[in-house]
């Protein structure tokens, strides 16, 4: 949409003429991807690399402001008249006008499972701005290690694709752990890149085929010069817990990490009373995170990942004592924006919700 058109449609006069609907409601009659301010996209291609995954190529509207390699975003879909969002890593390089994400089936994850089963070309997807600091700088290290497990491959692939797009792969080792070849996303692409680029060495470990979990001997054998490499690490919590101390014991070079779940999230248990100020509702803080307490009280706060990554559930806490569920740290806060999903009441709390 041209800036002058967007400015005109965003004027108070046009907004008043559109009432009680919004300008976006009328734009949707032309193309549901159109919006004055909201990033939205249309699925332009669907590929299923494995039986439990789907790779989406998304054409965003002009409200999308781009991303840096390794970042993530929220994808939103409307299910039964309610918008649900989930956090996914962006795999496409920053210079690509299209957005690529790969979604794996995730237990009872409503958005993930819906997309794996029902994603199709032309589907409308709601987008958030890109977030995250799992990003390399403008200069590429002379020697780098990319190490991932499971769906943790996605942000690491985003980093690699950025380096390849800039023709800056000099000496990169990519070690990925997957259960089997059938379960591994991006297996064919990585094999092709390994054969094509002399500066890239790909090591794939299939744990169900006897490849073994990550340990000191395996890491030393695959990356004997780890002390000289800057590292990007991503995977499930158990993998991260095992890999990080091994890497730090062998290298003083920077270690960048991304994790899809809040590390060592304590059992969500609080205490005290929670007052939801704007709704004039009080609830016991004992029944989970502040997000869970709000939902239990009948409120519908915004949320995305529910694990402390996306910040969609951030809300102002007027005052109170809270506990960080990742670190167990207790602190008094006043007029502070907090992620509700990773904080619980540690005393009386007033939330502006």
Write the layout of secondary structure elements.
Layout (H helix, E strand, L loop, with lengths): L2 H7 L2 H7 L4 H8 L9 E8 L5 E8 L11 E8 L2 E8 L9 E6 L5 H9 L5 E4 L16 E6 L3 H13 L6 E7 L8 H10 L3 E7 L9 H7 L7 E6 L1 H14 L4 E5 L13 E4 L4 E4 L5 H7 L17 E11 L5 E10 L3 E9 L2
Parallel strand pairs: 7-8, 7-10, 8-9, 10-11, 12-16
Antiparallel strand pairs: 1-2, 1-6, 2-5, 3-4, 3-6, 12-13, 14-15, 14-16
How would you characterize this protein structure?
This protein has helices at 3-9, 12-18, 23-30, 110-118, 153-165, 187-196, 216-222, 237-250, 290-296, and strands at 40-47, 53-60, 72-79, 82-89, 99-104, 124-127, 144-149, 172-178, 200-206, 230-235, 255-259, 273-276, 281-284, 314-324, 330-339, 343-351. The longest helix has 14 residues, at 237-250. The chain has four domains: 1-35, no CATH class; 38-132, Elongation Factor Tu (Ef-tu), domain 3 (Beta Barrel); 144-259, Nucleotide-binding domain of ferredoxin-NADP reductase (FNR) module (Rossmann fold); 273-351, Ubiquitin-like (UB roll), CATH 3.10.20.30. It contains nine helices and 16 strands. It is 23% helix and 31% strand. The chain is an alpha/beta fold. The protein has a six-stranded antiparallel β-sheet. A five-stranded parallel β-sheet has the order 9-8-7-10-11, with helices on both faces. Strands 13-12-16-14-15 form a five-stranded mixed β-sheet, covered by helices on one side. The radius of gyration is 22 Å and the shape is globular.
């Amino acid at each position: 949409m041209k800036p002058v058109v967007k400015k005109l449609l965003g004027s108070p006069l046009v907004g008043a003429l559109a009432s009680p609907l919004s300008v976006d409601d009328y734009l949707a009659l032309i193309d549901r991807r159109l919006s004055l301010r909201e990033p939205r996209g249309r699925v332009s291609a669907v590929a299923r690399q494995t039986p439990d995954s789907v790779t989406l190529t998304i054409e965003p509207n002009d409200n999308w402001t781009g991303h840096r390699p390794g970042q993530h975003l929220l994808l939103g879909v409307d299910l039964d008249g309610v918008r649900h969002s989930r956090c996914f890593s962006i795999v496409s390089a920053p210079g690509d006008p299209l957005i690529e994400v790969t979604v794996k089936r995730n237990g009872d994850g409503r958005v993930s499972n819906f997309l794996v089963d029902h994603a199709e070309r032309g589907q409308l997807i709601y987008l958030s701005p890109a977030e995250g600091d799992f990003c390399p700088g403008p200069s590429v290290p002379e020697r780098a290690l990319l190490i991932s497990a499971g769906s943790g491959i996605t942000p690491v692939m985003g980093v690699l694709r950025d380096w390849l797009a800039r023709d800056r792969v000099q000496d990169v080792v990519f070690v990925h752990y997957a259960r089997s070849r059938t379960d591994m996303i991006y297996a064919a692409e990585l094999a092709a890149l390994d054969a094509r680029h002399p500066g890239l060495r790909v090591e794939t470990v299939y744990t169900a085929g006897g490849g073994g979990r990550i340990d000191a001997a395996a890491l030393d054998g695959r990356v004997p010069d780890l002390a000289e490499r800057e590292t990007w690490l991503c995977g499930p919590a158990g993998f991260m817990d095992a890999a990080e101390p091994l890497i730090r014991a062998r290298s003083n070079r920077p270690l960048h990490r991304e994790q899809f779940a809040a590390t060592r999230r304590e059992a969500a248990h609080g205490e005290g009373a929670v007052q939801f100020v704007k709704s004039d509702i009080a609830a016991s803080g004992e029944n989970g995170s502040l997000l869970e307490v709000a939902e239990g009280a009948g409120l519908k706060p915004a949320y995305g990942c529910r694990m402390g990554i996306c910040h969609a559930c951030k809300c102002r806490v007027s005052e109170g004592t809270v506990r960080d569920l990742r670190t167990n740290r207790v602190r008094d806060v006043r007029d502070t924006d907090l992620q509700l999903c990773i904080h619980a009441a540690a005393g009386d709390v007033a939330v502006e919700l």
